[in-house]
Design brief:
The structure holds 2 protein chains of 2 kinds.
Chain A (H helix, E strand, L loop, with lengths): L4 H9 L10 E5 L2 E5 L2 H12 L10 E4 L9 H16 L4 E2 L8 H7 L8 E5 L12 E4 L2 H10 L1 E5 L3 E7 L8 H12 L8 E5 L1 H5 L2 H9 L8 E3 L4 H7 L20 E6 L6 E3 L7 E3 L11 E4 L1 H4 L2 H11 L9 E4 L4 H9 L2 H8 L2 E2 L20 E4 L15 E4 L2 H10 L13
Parallel strand pairs in A: 2-3, 2-5, 3-4, 5-6, 8-9, 8-11, 9-10, 14-15, 14-17, 15-16, 17-18
Antiparallel strand pairs in A: 1-7, 12-13
Chain B lengths: L2 E8 L6 H4 L10 H6 L9 H7 L2 E4 L11 H8 L4 E4 L4 H10 L3 E3 L1 H4 L7 E5 L4 E4 L4 E4 L5 H8 L3 H10 L3
Parallel strand pairs in B: 1-2, 2-3, 3-4
Antiparallel strand pairs in B: 1-5, 5-6, 6-7
Classes of the chains: A alpha/beta, B alpha/beta.
Chain lengths: 424, 167
């Protein structure tokens, strides 16, 4: 019996010829990361273990991206704890404010997470790096502390689900819509404990940014990891930025899948996930034109990359944000910010009346830089719309792609991109 | 012997980590402080209810969403003895085991337990007893590795020994 790409990576990292779904293994880790929320808790646990050193100071990233620039005194103390630990243990990849970006946009950009890697991160969206052909999954702080001390972690080898997309992707339909629609079909626990392998002709032509968006939201279907076999597009992305060697794995043609889903996407539309679950999706054409909104957020580890900002700018160019709406835009990393500046995107956003924030996770999780009040409604390019996710427990979050978000900001209600005149 | 006895406090499916402990309180790692806000976006009365009913009985996919270990920590510090669910989200599952919050997946028991029923949970044998109705439910015990982590009182103690053993 052949193996899936997930099984092959896990087998190689546990020094086994083969692994089987359900098997418990210890796997060696190529790279691990934590942030300013999960890191401090992990540092406390690390100190309890009594290890004197971290396993490898060049394979750990500590990324203060959630409550930074520090939103209050307590957050400042958390950041300080991360900073002090990084200094003490000579952690090579600690990123200070000004150089820090949203972790899951930053690490691929820096060439620190690579094809064939086995990665854990103390953040649920660590599954993002599967887009590069890595096995990558989110864990908690204690697991991270253990990994920091030992360089390994225990896993249960997951069963794999295969998602095959074919046909031609219609205009304005993005990776975000593919993953939201997929979660809509299988539910928020449709891939619980499992690997989601995304493939088919549509995936093969998708740029890396859309692939990262798709794998980023595998966790919203409950998955352990999302993964895409690396190809020419992956190679193009990693060469020139890779900081280590990497390896391309492919699934065997006789690999075993618990389930195979096949969809023709030719008639798919941009979708919006209504409160309060990412699976609560509706095609844009079916949504009534009277869902008025207070805020639009374009950013996050899901959709804060340069390609996302270009889409938003294309729609916003020459338009104004609706008077009743606050548009908040977060370039996910300093490099993306700089590119957006050079390409004139920042000017388009400012002309439209948007507020640009520094790279931060703040608004997405209701931390800072755009918290919602009671009864307020937001369209967001983020990944979760749970109760209270972006602020008051009685606020509402509608998840969408950057084009829908930008169009909605102009019209003051949930709107389709084709309702706005694109002014080139 | 890990046996817990208490009264059931019930919640539904897909209880996510954002309602278990909202991100606005994640600027601390103090268990006591976190427990003050546990579940408040879902049930403002949780803090009082849990004084009487400290065995959580919940539906599918409990703890879905973020990897914040603050979620099981807040629940544990609230005084919850253990959680019985139809299923757990995977990161929450790992986190609960790692910090020593006992959890058990017993799907068939959940629908047959009413809020306020008296429950006994025997972790060694994987048995849930509804004392109020007399019904008994069995589940598979944890795999040996996970039992070892639980027996040692969590992953940190497990790690200490593994490091000492030169592994």
């Amino acid at each position: 019996m052949g193996m899936t790409i997930t099984e092959k990576i896990l087998a190689d990292h546990s020094e086994k010829k083969e692994v089987y779904p359900g098997e418990l293994i210890f796997a060696k880790l190529d790279f691990i990361l934590a942030n300013d929320i999960t890191g401090p808790l992990a540092i406390k646990e690390f100190e309890k273990i009594g290890a004197e050193k971290v396993f490898d100071s060049e394979r750990i990233a500590l990324i203060p991206d959630h409550s930074t620039p520090n939103k209050d005194i307590k957050s400042a103390m958390q950041s300080k704890m991360l900073r002090d630990f990084a200094k003490k243990h000579n952690i090579k990849y600690y990123y200070e404010v000004g150089r820090v970006g949203i972790e899951h946009a930053l690490l691929p950009e820096e060439g620190l997470v690579l094809p064939g890697d086995c990665i854990i991160g103390a953040d649920s969206h660590t599954c993002t790096y599967g887009a590069l052909g890595a096995f990558s999954t989110g864990v908690g702080s204690t697991d991270f502390a253990y990994a920091m001390a030992t360089g390994e972690i225990w896993f249960k080898v997951p069963e794999s689900l295969k998602f095959v997309y074919y046909g031609k992707l219609p205009q304005w339909v993005t990776g975000k819509d593919l993953i939201l629609q997929t979660i809509g079909y299988i539910g928020v626990d449709g891939a619980r404990y499992k690997a989601m392998e995304f493939t088919g002709e549509v995936i093969r032509t998708l740029p890396m940014s859309d692939r990262l968006t798709i794998c980023n939201m595998a966790i919203e279907a409950g998955a352990k990891n999302g993964i895409i076999e690396p190809d020419e597009i992956t190679l193009e992305y990693v060469k020139g930025r890779a900081k280590r060697d990497y390896k391309f794995y492919k699934s065997d043609s006789d690999a075993n899948y618990k389930e195979i889903y096949e969809w023709d996407v030719s008639k798919w539309e941009p979708v919006v996930a209504f409160p309060h679950l990412p699976s609560n999706v509706k095609p844009i054409s079916s949504i009534s034109k009277d869902i008025y909104i207070d805020q639009v957020y374009i950013g996050s580890c899901t959709n804060g990359r340069i390609e996302d900002l270009r889409i938003a700018a294309k729609i916003l160019k020459g338009h104004k944000v609706h008077p009743d709406v606050r548009l908040i835009v977060t370039p996910a990393t300093p490099r993306i910010y700089m590119e957006a500046l050079k390409e004139g995107l920042i000017e388009i956003f400012l002309d439209a009346g948007a507020s640009i924030t520094p790279p931060s996770c703040g608004p997405c999780l209701g931390g800072h830089l755009g918290v919602l009040a009671e009864g307020e409604r937001a369209v967001a390019t983020t990944n979760r719309n749970f109760v209270g996710r972006m602020g008051h427990p009685k606020s509402e979050v509608y998840l969408a792609n950057p084009a829908v978000a930008a169009a909605s900001a102009i019209l003051g209600r949930i709107a389709a991109p084709w309702e706005v005149e694109v002014k080139d | 012997m890990m046996v817990f006895r208490g009264f059931a406090l019930k919640y539904g499916d897909n209880i996510d980590t954002d309602v278990i402990i909202p991100a606005r309180y994640l600027n601390t790692t103090d268990p006591k402080e976190l427990s003050e806000h546990c579940m408040e976006d879902l049930d403002l009365d949780f803090k009082n209810k849990v004084k009487e009913k400290n065995i959580l009985v919940v539906g599918e996919n409990f703890g879905c969403g973020s990897s914040r270990e603050h979620a099981p920590i807040a629940i544990k510090a609230s005084g919850v003895q253990c959680i019985i669910a139809k299923s757990f989200a995977r990161i929450f599952y790992r986190n609960a085991i790692n910090i020593g919050l006992p959890i058990l997946e017993v799907p068939e028991a959940v629908d047959k337990i009413n809020e306020g029923d008296e429950i006994e949970v025997d972790f060694d044998n994987g048995i849930v007893k509804n004392i109020s109705t007399g019904e008994i439910f069995k589940t598979f015990p944890f795999p040996p590795l996970i039992q070892e982590i639980i027996k040692k009182g969590g992953l940190i103690n497990f790690a200490k020994e593994r490091i000492k053993g030169g592994k």
